[in-house]
Amino acid sequence: MSSENTRLRPPGPTRHVTLLVATRKGAWFYHGDPARGSWRTDGPHFLGHVISHVVLDPRDGRTLLAAAKTGHLGPTIFRSTDFGANWTEAARPPAFARAESGAGRSVDHTFWLAPGPALEPDVWYAGTSPQGLFRSDDGGISWTPFSCINDDPDYLKWMGTVQDGTPDGPKLHSIIVDPRDPSHLYFAMSGGGVHESLDGGRSFAPLIDGLDVVEGFDGSQPSFHDPHCVRLCPTNPDRLYQQNHCGIYRLDRPATRWQKIGDTMPSEVGEIGFPMVVHPRDADTAWVFPMDGTSVWPRTSPDGRPAVYVTRDAGASWQRLDAGLPTAQAWWTVKRQAMTADSQDTIGLYFGTTSGELWASPDEGAHWTCIAQHLPDIYAVEVAERPAP
Amino acid sequence: MKVLIPSALRAYTESAHAEASGATLADVLDALDRQYPGIRFRMIDEQGRIRRHIRIFFDGEQVRDLAQPLRADGELIIVQALSGG
């Protein structure tokens, strides 16, 4: 279904790639040369802070937001308008509404940052742990609870307790704004399912039809769904891919039923993982990083042999991409935000491991090189593409 | 009153020592936040609870209630408590 033409970027100025690496103990930036063959280390930034996510605002090419907390201190957002040279703290970080009873929820950390669409240049969204959805209308300086979901009885039931999420807390993630329509939003919760709004966030509804849940549980209940990562295809915003706790899925709107596409993965590898990466120009191409989801869920590379898998036919088949990666005894974990792609003429792919290694491929995953070792646990890897200086 | 600031919060105060006044712990923390915007939220969550790894002592006694009255001539010590590796 793909053609070379659909993968080519329109002619334009050269854009340099910087990797924004968020870790449990700070952030590091890696500035690539034009060939993406060598990388200049820039960091640490915020040494000792737990950095969940660092994201460039693609609308201005210079504003960065970083979601931070420390072992002792509460969460905040740092903001730079000069691509990381200087940082200031958000005047009003994401925080839940105060409950008169005193028993309300408090944000432990902001987990996911998402710039709004080009049509809304100062809008950002944030997802938190425990699950909360927040919005900034001033470029990330002040944040307010967004939508009804933070206090809605049904959503609170689906979110569950701190025991119903990931080991470091339940999370709201995968905030997606339809590039054609800012009032069309998606988000996902671990746990709590995938949700969609068609009215600018005034209301959301579950979008979980077709997704499996753990055996013995009721799949009609959002509580039992654990979408690990959901991505929208930029050149076909009607197509979503999802890496889920129970496998890999695709959804082509306006359909509302997810189609399982992970059952074509090799059985000895399985279809469990956390990241989901889509091609910026070819909606039939996507990448995953499988991890062991058997028995006690080691969540490490199957058989100690890491590999990226790619589909180029929307999930009908998958191919292994492991050239340059260790061939044995590499028990890696890659978190849901820790794998991404750039949008260069030949796509670069990047991932970071919880053992502190950063890997890059300049050719869509065909060949891999380690570009950093010995970092703290890598939580997120994002690409920042900017005009060449 | 004198307030001893832990290292984790000195990015705000640029000093181990600060001065703030108020009749209660809540008042003193509000006064600190007016001088050093953002510092309160790093210690106190949006529900008014002292964060898990923050401890606050007044004249050697731990303060757990933001409404507790404080004397103007006492010393407040803010401590970053154990939070793992």
Descriptive overview:
The complex is a heterodimer of chains A (about 400) and B (about 80). With about 400 residues, chain A is mostly beta strands. Chain A has one domain: YVTN repeat-like/Quinoprotein amine dehydrogenase (Methylamine Dehydrogenase, Chain H). In chain A, about 5% of the residues lie in helices and about 40% in strands. Chain A has two helices and 28 strands. Chain A has helices at about 5, 155-160, and strands at about 15-25, 25-30, 40-45, 50-55, 65-70, 75-80, 90, 110-115, 125-130, 130-135, 145, 170-175, 185-190, 195, 205, 225-235, 235-245, 245-250, 260, 275-280, 285-290, 310, 320, 340, 350, 360, 370, 380-385. The longest helix of chain A has 7 residues, at about 155-160. The model of chain A is unreliable at about 1-10 (pLDDT under 50). Chain B is α+β, with helices and mostly antiparallel strands and about 80 residues long. Chain B has a single domain, classed as Roll (Ubiquitin-like (UB roll)), CATH 3.10.20. In chain B, about 25% of the residues lie in helices and about 20% in strands. A five-stranded mixed beta sheet of chain B has the order 2-1-5-3-4, with no helix packed on it. The chains are: A mainly beta (about 400), B alpha+beta (about 80). At the A-B interface, loops of A face helix 3 of B.
Provide tags for this entry:
A: 389 residues, Methylamine Dehydrogenase, Chain H, 4-stranded antiparallel beta sheet, 28 strands, 3% helix, disordered N terminus, B: 85 residues, alpha+beta, 5-stranded mixed beta sheet, 5 strands, 24% helix, 22% strand
